[in-house]
């Protein structure tokens, strides 16, 4: 995504963060009110784990959006992309697993977790190099 202007990265990260945070609230409400009697307790817990990780990473992306206004570091941009992809893979696979009842989708979840770790590592490098 070399074509995105440095300030555009901040905008992209903030839009993604707001979308993820808002949809996390909606999904949490859906779990509490719509799924509570439809899913087993263990599947409901799995769904709620997806919601929690989505919200935490949405908040991290908001911080990244603010940071991107001061630095266009490639490590920072890579971290943003990894956090976005990690959220889709991790939380998305947990939602799909519980709603579709397909346990094999759970094999995608660890890939999302590794992507989160890569993202946090990129952010750590960006912080180390920040001047």
UniProtKB/TrEMBL annotation:
Residues 1-28 form the signal peptide. It is a multi-pass membrane protein. Its main location: membrane. The chain crosses the membrane at residues 51-68, 80-101, 107-128. This is DUF423 domain-containing protein. It is found in: Membrane. Keywords: Membrane, Signal, Transmembrane, Transmembrane helix. Pfam families: DUF423. It comes from the Bacteria. Belongs to the UPF0382 family. The lineage of its organism: Bacteria, Pseudomonadati, Pseudomonadota, Gammaproteobacteria, Vibrionales.
